[in-house]
Amino acid sequence: MRSPPGFMEGRNRRRGRGLIQLYILHSLKKEPKSGYDILKEISDKTKGAWVPSKGTLYPMLKKMEDEGLITISETGKRSKNIFGLTEDGKTTLEGIIKGREEEREKMYIFRNLLFEIFGDESESVRANLMEIRFLAEKIPDDKQGKAKSLVKKCLEDLKRLDSDESGKC
């Protein structure tokens, strides 16, 4: 599914806006929310490091409504706006996720070419990380717990290495 015009567009200064729009769709798929709830959720997810301003969020929500991706309804004594996901919004989100999965597959197939072009002395670490990521996504659900445990242990060991301590992954 192709994204609506303007959605997820741009590579530089607008990239953050596309990510916010994508997160809004993802978040509203779970349940309808107010703008305040969305801002708080983003703040929590970024551990307060970054939160869009109301002047960024609310016009974006209006644009997404105009594009048919979300609905806006008023509820409560203060007529608080509640945003919900439309079927078009759900379809758009699913299309973006599917497209990302396809891109990930292409990246894996062409990984050696990419490392040849962009590689450096840490090439083998990057190659191994890409391999781990690709394999982890293919592990059956009943083995995901073990996979998470292995990755978590490896991450802890790498953090010790970063702190100039020895570790074994």
From TrEMBL:
InterPro entries linked to this entry: Tscrpt_reg_PadR_N, WH-like_DNA-bd_sf, WH_DNA-bd_sf
SUPFAM superfamilies in the record: Winged helix' DNA-binding domain
Transcription regulator PadR N-terminal domain boundaries: 24-94
PANTHER family: TRANSCRIPTION REGULATOR, PADR-LIKE FAMILY, TRANSCRIPTIONAL REGULATOR YQJI
Protein known as: PadR family transcriptional regulator
Species of origin: Methanochimaera problematica
